Amino acid sequence: MNRLILNKVVMILATISAIAGMGFLFWILATLTMKGLSSLHFSMFLNDMVEGGFRNLLVGQFTMAFIATVIGVPVGMMAGIYLREYSNDNTLASIMRNLSDVMMSAPSIVIGVFVYAILVDPVNHYSGWAGSAALSIMMIPIIISTTDNMLSLVPKELREAGIALGGSKHKIILQIVLKAAKVGITTGVLLAFARIIGETAPLLFTSANNAYFSMNMNDQFPSLTVSIYNLANYPDAESRDLAWAAAFVLTMIVLFINLTGRYLTRDKG
Q: Which of 14, 162, 182, 262 has the fewest CB atoms lying closer than 10 Å?
């Protein structure tokens, strides 16, 4: 009898906690949507920050995220392939997996300070390259973990069939194993991209910001997230409205990428 009562109490508490969590999330999204939509104008997509828009900020944010993806995905995938296909779960593989887990949970500001120390401080100026480097460092452990986990779900029989047909190990991995895991790996890449596209802290220490349109990666680079942080602290209403609009657009972008990743996972099942 006591077990039944305890079970009901725990279930009620869990339900209340879930409702409370969803309530706060809905509150945040509702506030952001109302304030963001009321401040959003189509001209903001056509003008740069100095003209009351965020065209240069969107281009800058996606440019750094794209470069980070070009760096992070190959490195992360190769490391994940090594862990699953070549390491035979040796000591090095165990160390790499533990380090990858630690890096995924590391505060992004710590990564920003690290990149600042090695890429910004020695040359005494911010740059888009430093921002991309910080984002790629954040992305790599996510790709490693995703690749490792997705490859572990590929049945051993597929590998054995490739060996029986006389395929070399690297061809089996490229032509059979990776193809079987491509949906899961693609989903992981999308979710990792969604993570870095909304990061602010590492860019504060690396790329800083630029109110003008610029594609010069050797100088301060436009950033949507850093601009939102800066604009929200300005005293004038126009700057705060631009911050709300930019925050709404960024949230919708991240939400779309996340939903796309979830849809791909569901489609796989």
A: 14
